[in-house]
Specification:
By secondary structure, the protein is of the alpha+beta class. It has three helices and seven strands; from the N terminus they run E-H-H-E-E-E-E-E-E-H. It has a seven-stranded antiparallel sheet with strand order 1-7-6-5-4-3-2, with helices on one face. The chain starts with a strand and ends with a helix.
């Protein structure tokens, strides 16, 4: 399983960033390559909420399903796949001298028919790193200009 971990300091209160980032309707505004979010449960925020959405990576458009687990207000959550590419994300929000640090961790496994570890190291992992870094910078820009 590949793990990518990136952090960014955002000059905004953790509560403001968490409120925005935990709203699935906002995800396509800052997270690169995702769109068409549809809730699959009556719960749309917090533990047990599930979403189906489109994700674009490596030139492919795929349908992905994610369930939110271990949701803690103003601290973070885990997103675990139930459809599409096997993955898990962790969203961590921490207060930092009046600002906040946001850390995003993505773990995934590529199926063998997508080229395995060599393909991952040469193409998939660098592509995901770019997507994650751009997404974190998008979130920072939005939160610091609102």
């Amino acid at each position: 399983m590949t793990e990518i971990k990136r952090s960014i300091n955002i000059m905004a209160p953790v509560e403001k960033v968490f409120e925005y980032a935990s709203d699935y309707k906002k995800w396509s505004e800052f997270f690169e390559g995702v769109s068409d979010f549809r809730p699959m449960t009556a719960i749309t925020r917090g533990n047990g909420s599930k979403y189906i959405y489109k994700a674009k990576a490596l030139g492919m458009n795929v349908t992905v399903g994610t369930e939110v687990l271990q949701f803690k207000e103003n601290e973070g959550w885990i997103g675990k796949s139930f459809k599409g590419l096997e993955h898990q994300t962790q969203w961590i929000f921490e207060k930092s001298n009046g600002n906040m640090d946001f850390t995003f961790i993505q773990r995934y496994s590529l199926p063998f028919y997508l080229g395995g570890k060599l393909f991952d190291k040469m193409f998939a992992e660098p592509a995901w790193i770019k997507i994650i870094e751009k997404s974190l910078n998008n979130l920072k820009r939005i939160m610091e200009t609102e």
